[in-house]
Amino acid sequence: MKSNLEIREKIESNRILYWEVAEKVGISQGNLSVWLRTEMREDRKKRVEKAINELLQK
What pLDDT digit, counting tens, does each position of 27-36 carry? Predict the structure, then answer.
């Protein structure tokens, strides 16, 4: 089972691109990929969720 499944599903179901989330968080797409490989620390998870929510409001 993949880590951070809830975040992955939210990104994919809303047709947001991973690089858009990474850019909004202020990291590279590669770093976002590394973050998603294992369960994220709570502070990182909040940053990513905030970025996704901001992208959804556009």
Answer: 999 999 999 9
